[in-house]
Write a structure and sequence with these properties.
Elements: H1 2-19, E1 30-40, E2 47-52, E3 55-60, H2 64-69, E4 82-89, E5 96-104, E6 107-110
Parallel strand pairs: 3-5
Antiparallel strand pairs: 1-2, 1-4, 2-3, 4-5, 5-6
């Protein structure tokens, strides 16, 4: 039993270290709307570069498998599409956001 607990703790720590979600400020949620300038539907996480106002944000999405399973196809992230993302800004990278959800058209996709 003790070994199982240690293994679970190790896996949780490793997963947390991989994602580095502590680098994002969950106390300052943001909602951004704009136009997709570029996208990637790749491992370990998809992304979009979203032009919102006079700033282009790097928006970190979920892994492709999760996006696909939740109905967010690669085609929906096409350049020129309008999107709204809700998430948390990076603590030290002023133009990066970790998205909790993305809205394209009338489709809202929960990413976490």
């Amino acid at each position: 039993m003790k070994r199982l607990f240690l293994l679970a703790a190790l896996v949780a720590t490793t997963a947390s270290a991989h994602h580095g979600w502590s680098e994002y400020n969950a106390d300052k949620p943001l909602s951004l709307s704009g136009t997709i300038e570029e996208s990637g539907y790749e491992q370990p996480h998809g992304f979009v570069r979203l032009k919102s106002g006079d700033k282009t944000w790097l928006v970190v999405l979920a892994p492709p498998g999760r996006m696909e399973n939740r109905g967010l196809s690669k085609a929906m992230l096409a350049k020129g599409n309008k999107a709204t993302v809700q998430g948390y800004p990076h603590r030290s990278k002023s133009e990066e956001l970790r998205a909790e959800r993305i809205i394209i058209g009338d489709k809202t996709t929960e990413l976490r």
